[in-house]
Amino acid sequence: MALLNVVDDDTKTITDTNSLYPSRYTERNNQKYMNSQFVWPESLHRPLMEEKMGKNQLHQPMIFCAIPHGAAPLGITAYPIWSKLFNNRLCHWTCAPVVLKLPIISTYMRQVGYIPAKARHILDTLTKKEDNIGIILDGIAGMFQSHNEIAHVQARKGIVKIALRAGAPIVPVYGFGHTSLWKVVVDPFGILENLSVKMDVALTPFFGRFNWFLGPPQRVAIAMCLGEPVRCPKIAEPTQADIDKYHQQLLDGYLEVFEKHKEAYGWGDKELQFV
After folding, report:
1. Distance (Å, rounded) from C-alpha 126 to C-alpha 146?
2. DSSP H or E segment with residue 163
3. pLDDT tens profile 32-69
4. Which of 21, 186, 222, 250 could be joined to 36 by an S-S link, Cβ 3.0–4.6 Å?
């Protein structure tokens, strides 16, 4: 993408810039490898948003709620896309807390803005830092649905409660191709899945390109499609009815964006299921 090749001044090379901004290096290589595309509705386009919602809308933090997880949701690693494009805020993606305790990788992930996927950290980021949040809603459970468009989101209502408390809009995001990057080995009894969900860490083998164990992903095109934002009013103590109402709007948003773009992606025969 063009923004990845921008050099800050005449004295820096692209290599120098990548070393200073690791997220640019990640995005550049992932984009080239998988030919990722991003699609968003007119309502998220800055000129129209400012015209219809006013300039204050550009300062309001939002939550990007993406599905499915797959073995690894590489579509979200175009990190600069989520920051200051749809509003004036930076974006912090979330991950399992245990990942931020791992040597080496935790340092890199913190540098690009990751925070633990815990309610307190997410709410503080939205209300105190006033930054955007990105979250893979189906989480670890979504890793076990390789090659199936099944999203474990029926009971994932915590993010809606946080959005209501913060008064932050939720943007449904569907990652076409996420489930095709790796082949995940799923045991027929669901033991590994149950253990992984309980321990909040993946305990499943997967195979990538050339059927290599833990190998690189298949070179599959990825399309990150954003839907119409779910506008959540600010409610200090939302009731269960409030949470259920806006959670259903989020599910409807996923279905709408999936049905709208699946034909263009080449998945006209696929259906999205919620469990």
Report:
1. 32
2. helix 158-166
3. 777 888 999 988 887 777 766 666 767 889 999 999 98
4. 222
> pLDDT for 192-206, tens place per residue?
667 766 666 666 778
In this structure, is the dihedral angle defined by the CA atoms of residues 194, 197, 203 and 209, taken in order, positive or negative? Answer: positive
CB-CB neighbours of 87 under 10 Å? 21
Answer yes or no: are the C-beta atoms of 65 and 126 closer than 8 Å: no
Phi, psi of 107 (to 5 degrees): -65, -45
- φ and ψ of 38, to 5 deg: -125, 135
DSSP characters for 10-53?
A: TT--HHHHHHH-HHHHHHHHHHHHHT-EEE--GGGSHHHHHHHH
- What span, in angstroms and rounded, lies between the C-alpha atoms of 197 and 206? 17
Alpha carbon separation from 270 to 32, 179, 250, 255 (Å, rounded): 26, 12, 20, 12
Element (H, E) at 171: strand 170-176
Nearest to 200 by CA among 265, 143, 157, 254: 143
Q: Which residues of 151-176 are buried (b: 16+ CB within 10 A; e: fewer)?
A: bbbeebbbbbbbbbbbbbbbbbbbbb
Distances (CA, A) of 41 to 6, 46, 214, 235: 26, 11, 36, 27
